[in-house]
Amino acid sequence: MGNCGGSEKQEARTKRIDEQLKSQRPKLDNEIKILLLGAGDSGKSTVMKQMKIIHGKGFTDTEKKEFIDAIYENLIINAKALVHAVSRFGLEFLEENEQKVSRFEKLAPHASSFSSEIAQDMMDLWKDPAIKSAYTRSSEFQLNNSAEYFFGRIPDIISSGYVPSVDDILRVRIKTTGINVSRFEVDSVEFQMVDVGGQRNERKKWIHCFQNVTSAIFCVGTSEYDQGLYEDQSENRMIEALNLFAEICNCKWFENTEMILFFNKDDLFREKIKTVSLKTCFDDYDQGLDYEEAKTFLTRKFKSVCNNQSKRIYEHFTTATNTKNIEYVFSDIKDILLSNIKHI
After folding, report:
1. 192 with 308, same domain?
2. CA atoms within 13 A on the CB side of 151
3. Separation CA 278–CA 282 (nearest Å)
4. What is the pLDDT of residue 106?
5. Which of 187, 175, 144 is nearest to 32 (CA)?
6. 159 and 232 in one domain?
7. Which residues bind GTP (predicted)?
8. Cα–Cα dist 73/69, whole Å
């Protein structure tokens, strides 16, 4: 487990977590509790949003509008990442786009920087052959999976009276901080899903507070086996996820907790495995570009890191942005969760 950081910022953040846990504890003791785990950008937040859509009341227009700034920031961050990648790869923009590139290089990655002029620049640059070429190499730098989607949505995003769609909300990336809780009812049973994000260094501090959770869902960004971490491009995301799962699965606090693996981003994985072998991440993989073989390998690889081989670990290949898929999967695991009511 990671050690607690010593900086004032980390201490303040840990204190906030303690306060949140204390306030949530009475409710934690009276509901079926699901802990949502996984490395960064594995789709945890998207699963949380889906629970609100599927089992809650969805998002009101007011709530939808609260995502607009994040969408602006996603667009700017992705555009700047692509512009930087073009330079890094030694590619050249079309002459008519050079002035636009210069503006982007000076642009701050904040929602306040977004304007109709910047939006038009984005649409023009997205068509530039250099950007298209850099995009095909997106695994070599940090680019959100939803980049192409949002570039295609720019005309709607800059239109008067724009209200983010459900798809927009599911695809926008917002870094999780603190504790996020989603409560919902299924077949007259109260569920609570808890996501503690962005707190890797403090995991040892809070993890014992969830020792009585009914189940833990661990999300894996399945398509990210050839990508580096946001924090360190040289560190492979899939290896990071595997190591984190080993920590969680073998943690004493979760000895009696049902483990459910969500191999997320399956839609992207299906496409990537056609051209990029898992061998780029795992030297012992030798099944080529076969999707089913790759699924079997990943399932076995993750289950193998659990010291208790008799422990049942359930797995599902999911696409968190697909509401029907998540609804089906959650319905499938519902019986697992309900069977553990006696442990609460």
Report:
1. yes
2. 23
3. 6
4. 86
5. 187
6. no
7. 170-176, 195-199, 264-267, 320
8. 6
Out of 130, 163, 196, pick the residue that ends a domain: 163
Chain centroid to CA 137: 20
Q: At what angle do helices 68-88 and 147-157 cross, to 10 degrees?
A: 130
112-132 burial by CB neighbour count: b if 16+ within 10 A, else e? eebeeebbebbeebbebebbe
**Rounded to whole angstroms, how far apart are CA atoms 197 and 176?**
5
Which residues contribute to the annotated binding site for GTP? 170-176, 195-199, 264-267, 320
Tell me phi and psi for residue 37, to 5 degrees: -125, 165
Same domain assignment for residues 202 and 247 = yes
Both structure tokens of 5: 């950081």
**342 domain-assigned:** no
Instruction: Let me know: does 288 contact 245? Beta carbons within 8 Å.
Output: no
Q: Are 254 and 211 in contact (CB under 8 A)?
A: yes
Domain of 128, in residue numbers: 68-163
DSSP symbols for 306-338: -S-TTS-EEEEE--TT-HHHHHHHHHHHHHHHH
Q: For the segment 118-171, what is each residue's pLDDT rounded down to a tens digit?
A: 999 999 999 999 999 999 999 999 999 999 999 999 999 999 999 999 999 999
Q: Tell me if 36 sits within 8 A of 217, measured CB to CB.
A: yes
Single out the residue in 139, 163, 187 at which a domain terminates. 163
Selection from 233, 227, 312 nearest residue 265 by Cα:
227
**pLDDT of the residue at 20:** 61
Joined tokens for residue 198: 């962005």
In the chain, the amino acid numbered 63 is E
Pick out the residues of the known binding site.
45, 170-176, 195-199, 264-267, 320
> Do residues 233 and 293 share a domain?
yes
Residue numbering of the annotated binding site for Mg(2+):
45, 176
